[in-house]
């Protein structure tokens, strides 16, 4: 059997003949021993990860060493500073005004066209550098989810879960979602081969059950959108097929975490795609150590855009966040809202008229929205050149000039508002109003917001053309 055939059998039949990766026993001692706890990379292939169940790592925390390698991965050469816009594809001309097949049919009940429909044998393997780097990014994401979803279950007591409104059945559901991640990590590893990135050690921002769940609704948001951004650009349709089947699950996870956070389960009509560098920018700050010889990524890390008055999802009157300043637990891009606010301001234990409470529920109305058109949004942003990510070995960068616009990326749109500078690294804007179709407001839910030097027109299939114009990237909490 050829290598590729063998691979597709492993992927599709979930063959258990593959050698499992055994997790190294982790017993954490003093700081100086942390390096010894970085999971040992497993050489060999194919792989089924954690066949006998995953146990959350016993160490989570920051990286304390000095990076030996820095910067994103590079190819043999880089051919231009950016991609030049081009004309439409000359073959993109099909139009059907008849409503019936216009071309000879290759077989009964089989209209002409499509990709991978002419009988070629599928090959479930990345097919280009673009595919490899995109799926490798996806795998970094699956690994953190595997550890993160397990971590809260291990970290918090049953009493803390019950107090946060999450009973035993809810915890079982989270455990099921955690276990889904070992399947996703296996799938992506198999599509990459022997240089698939390995699991790392993570540094999480939360201290309460609510903050953990909030962090998971943010993390799965950029995990999902990070995939929608590249899935239809992949060279390998076969890889895209399998990836779609795992990201459909991730989308369900995001909604469940929204419900457990007491947010409206769905605020929007469309979930959009984000370029890989946005997802990597959001993910990297939470990865502290990766094993020796870890496969590095080519994607850019943008400077962080801090939203000083991002809505606190735990307030029954979220607009009060603006009077109280920054209510994020930390400084990282997807850090959750602070949950340890006075009970008198919290929506968590409210009973009374619908529209204000935010305990876990199938659905909530927000009588006072988390944000609204016209809200004045206060920003600060980091200068480039900061060490982030695994072993602090990536460096934030921007290719843009000075910031002039705020870009709001959500649904089918990327829309802009004007940035007013109040200092070298601070400014404000007003949340714009805009609609997709009908009364479906563009700005809603958990979304990406960027500072740019240009209000470049981009659409869902060419969003990455904006990257050379990005000054800083943040995550906005609307709803
Ligand atoms: C099927 O289509 C692929 C391109 O999509 C092409 O490379 C291949 O030659 C085609 N096979 C046949 C039998 O026509
Ligand atoms: C990260 O740091 C750990 C501990 O110092 C080290 O064992 C590991 O090789 C480093 N990983 C990379 C990718 O440099
Ligand atoms: C890392 O790569 C070096 C050079 O290829 C090799 O000698 C070493 O054994 C590798 N380490 C691990 C843990 O795979
Ligand atoms: C939100 O808070 C700001 C600052 O206190 C206030 O000026 C504004 O009127 C409030 N807006 C709404 C819609 O509550
Ligand atoms: C926001 O508050 C958190 C928690 O106090 C702090 O760590 C962070 O630095 C603050 N961020 C900004 C931009 O002030
Ligand atoms: C919830 O919101 C919808 C639409 O905004 C509204 O029609 C409905 O009356 C609200 N339901 C309750 C119970 O507040
Ligand atoms: C802003 O930048 C200018 C030019 O780089 C510098 O001279 C000035 O000191 C900076 N101001 C502040 C408040 O950092
Ligand atoms: C948002 O995108 C939709 C679909 O392309 C378009 O119809 C609508 O006009 C856009 N809205 C704005 C405010 O750009
Ligand atoms: C956001 O979505 C919620 C729920 O669908 C809706 O009630 C609200 O009006 C939307 N906000 C905006 C600004 O469109
Ligand atoms: C992106 O695509 C749209 C068409 O959907 C086009 O009008 C726009 O110019 C493109 N943007 C760039 C930067 O190429």
Automatic annotation (TrEMBL):
<protein>
    <submittedName>
        <fullName>Protein rds1</fullName>
    </submittedName>
</protein>
<feature type="signal peptide">
    <location>
        <begin position="1"/>
        <end position="18"/>
    </location>
</feature>
<dbReference type="Pfam" id="PF13668">
    <property type="entry name" value="Ferritin_2"/>
</dbReference>
<keyword id="KW-0732">Signal</keyword>
<dbReference type="InterPro" id="IPR039254">
    <property type="entry name" value="Rds1"/>
</dbReference>
């Amino acid at each position: 059997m050829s290598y590729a055939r063998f691979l597709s059998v492993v992927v599709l039949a979930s063959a258990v003949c593959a050698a499992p990766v055994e997790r190294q026993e982790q017993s954490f001692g003093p700081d100086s021993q942390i390096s010894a706890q970085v999971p040992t990379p497993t050489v060999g292939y194919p792989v089924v990860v954690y066949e006998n169940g995953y146990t959350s790592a016993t160490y989570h925390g920051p990286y304390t060493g000095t990076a030996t390698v820095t910067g994103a991965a590079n190819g043999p050469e880089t051919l231009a500073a950016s991609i030049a816009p081009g004309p439409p594809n000359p073959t993109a001309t099909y139009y059907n005004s008849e409503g019936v097949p216009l071309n000879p049919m290759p077989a009964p009940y089989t209209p002409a066209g499509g990709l991978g429909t002419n009988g070629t044998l599928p090959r479930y393997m990345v097919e280009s550098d673009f595919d490899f780097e995109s799926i490798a990014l996806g795998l970094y994401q699956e690994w953190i989810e595997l550890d993160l979803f397990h971590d809260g279950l291990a970290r918090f007591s049953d009493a803390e879960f019950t107090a946060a409104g999450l009973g035993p059945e809810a915890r079982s559901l989270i455990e099921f979602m955690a276990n889904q991640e070992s399947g996703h990590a296996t799938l992506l590893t198999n599509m990459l081969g022997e240089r698939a990135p390995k699991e790392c050690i993570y540094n999480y921002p939360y201290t309460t059950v609510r903050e953990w769940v909030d962090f998971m609704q943010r993390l799965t948001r950029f995990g999902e959108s990070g995939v929608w951004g590249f899935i239809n650009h992949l060279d390998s349709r076969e890889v895209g097929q399998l990836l779609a089947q795992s990201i459909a699950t991730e989308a369900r996870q995001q909604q469940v975490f929204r419900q457990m956070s007491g947010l409206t389960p769905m605020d929007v009509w469309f979930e959009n795609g984000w370029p890989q560098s946005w997802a990597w920018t959001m993910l990297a700050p939470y990865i502290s150590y990766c094993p020796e010889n870890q496969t590095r990524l080519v994607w850019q890390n943008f400077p962080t855009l801090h939203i000083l008055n991002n809505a606190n999802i735990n307030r029954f009157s979220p607009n009060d966040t603006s009077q109280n300043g920054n209510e994020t637990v930390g400084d990282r891009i997807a850090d959750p809202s602070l949950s340890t606010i006075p009970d008198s301001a919290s929506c968590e234990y409210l009973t009374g008229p619908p529209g204000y409470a935010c305990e876990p529920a199938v659905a909530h109305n927000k009588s006072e929205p988390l944000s609204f058109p016209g809200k004045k949004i206060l920003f600060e942003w980091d200068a480039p050149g900061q060490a982030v990510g695994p072993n602090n070995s990536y460096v934030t960068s921007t290719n843009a000039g000075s910031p002039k616009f705020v870009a709001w990326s959500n649904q089918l749109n990327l829309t802009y508002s004007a940035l007013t500078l109040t200092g070298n690294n601070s400014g404000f804007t007003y949340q714009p109003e805009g609609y997709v179709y009908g009364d479906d407001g563009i700005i809603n839910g958990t979304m990406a917001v960027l500072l740019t030097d240009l209000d470049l027109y981009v659409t869902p299939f060419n969003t990455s053309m904006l990257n050379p114009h990005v000054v800083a990237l943040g995550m906005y909490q609307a709803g």
